Amino acid sequence: MNHIAIMKKSLGYTEKIANGQKTIESRWYKSKRTPWNRILVGDIVYFKNSGEPVALVAVVENVLQFQNLTKLDIQNILNMYSSMLGIDPSKVDEFHDSVKDARYCILIFLKNVKPTEPFIINKNGFGLMSAWLTTPDIQNITLS
Fold it and tell me: Given a cut of 70, is residue 110 above it in pLDDT?
């Protein structure tokens, strides 16, 4: 399966993935949403900053899913993985505040990260606010 992770540019996570400072992508939700139960070891994840073309590609090395999270669970996940999530140590509390109401967390461990020839995607059918897209064939949503 192919996935596209749309990142908030101001957080700088795409750059941290590219330079190896961020080796786990996380998604925190109040309800089960894509890619919950739809991402597997060996899948391909493409990364793009919002409003920009796809710039990076990686292979999924491992996936951990957590559900029915409590505030303590969230704190434990961040204590264990914050450095691999690319979160600056001085901003862990701020990050915790941003995900404190999440009930589901997906940790996607990345390997073989590399730049890709930039391309634009068509999000039609996924919803305008979708920040994660899943497709069996990346060519199905590639515009250029």
Answer: yes
